[in-house]
């Protein structure tokens, strides 16, 4: 039973607007995988589209090319070790879901494996192959076809970072396994 609540697609870009490090999930032909990605961003409003850098050499990229889909899951602070671990090993060598006991549920539109436990939100994405760029760039474009979030931290289109939801707050990679945790929000005041 999921405790996540659907996010209106018009608000999906807000889930990654602030640059969280994410877990990219993928599956094809009985294989499933997850890797960490620090480089992602919204690029279009309607339909919502994102760009995410996924190295052509990764197992993830291979599964995305074969299935045409992937998930973007936003780990909270309790998943820092896991995020670093799945970003430091390849699915070609180990089944990361099995090794780390990661549970998933199928996405509502494409059936992509999605992680909810310890995560603040997820986006289910349909890959938009760009043949001219395939050999040149690691960047993947995708349309967000479904999104959902834990309502304790994202609801009605807005993040709310409070002391009582610190474990769900997003993480941001500084390099070398060092992360800064989100939080400490400030509201901009109107200038005179
Ligand atoms: C915190 C973190 C962030 C990362 N960000 C990216 C990224 O944005 N793009 C990328 O291609 N690889 C990134 N990586 C590296 C991949 O996660 C790594 O190559 C992974 O082992 C690929 O797994 P796979 O072969 O199972 O797909 C990151 C690694 C870490 C630890």
Could you describe the largest sheet, including whether it forms a barrel? 8 strands, antiparallel
Shape: globular
The amount of beta strand, in percent, is 35-45%
Specify Rg, calculated over alpha carbons. Answer: 16 Å
User: What's the helix-strand series?
Assistant: EEEEEHEHHEEEHEEEEE
Global mean pLDDT: 96
Structure in words:
This protein is mainly β and 192 residues long. It has four helices and 14 strands. The mean pLDDT is 96. Flavin mononucleotide binds at residues 21, 33, 35-39, 53-55, 58-60, 83-84, 87-91, 138, 173. Flavin mononucleotide is lined by residues 21, 33, 35-39, 53-55, 58-60, 83-84, 87-91, 138, 173.
In summary, what is this structure?
This protein is mostly beta strands and 192 residues long. The chain has helices at residues 59-67, 80-86, 96-100, 131-134, and strands at 5-6, 22-28, 31-37, 40-44, 49-53, 69-75, 105-106, 113-114, 119-128, 139-149, 154-155, 158-159, 171-175, 178-181. Flavin mononucleotide (FMN) binds at residues 21, 33, 35-39, 53-55, 58-60, 83-84, 87-91, 138, 173.
């Amino acid at each position: 039973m999921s405790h996540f609540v659907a996010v209106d697609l018009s608000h999906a870009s807000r889930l990654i607007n602030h640059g969280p490090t994410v877990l990219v999930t993928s599956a094809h032909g009985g294989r499933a995988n997850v890797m960490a990605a620090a480089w992602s961003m919204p690029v279009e409003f309607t339909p919502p589209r994102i760009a995410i850098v996924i190295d052509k050499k990764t197992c993830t990229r291979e599964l995305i090319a074969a299935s045409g889909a992937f998930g973007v899951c936003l780990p909270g602070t309790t998943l820092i070790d896991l995020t670093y671990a799945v970003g430091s090993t390849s699915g070609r060598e180990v089944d990361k879901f099995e090794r780390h006991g990661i549970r998933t549920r199928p996405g509502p539109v494409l059936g992509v494996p999605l992680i909810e436990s310890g995560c603040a939100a997820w986006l289910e994405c349909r890959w938009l192959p760009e043949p001219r760029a395939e050999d040149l760039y690691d960047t993947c474009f995708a349309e967000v076809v479904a999104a959902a979030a834990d309502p304790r931290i994202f609801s009605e289109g807005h993040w709310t970072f409070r002391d009582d939801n610190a474990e769900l707050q997003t993480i941001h990679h500084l390099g070398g396994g060092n992360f800064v945790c989100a939080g400490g929000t400030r509201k901009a005041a109107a200038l005179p």
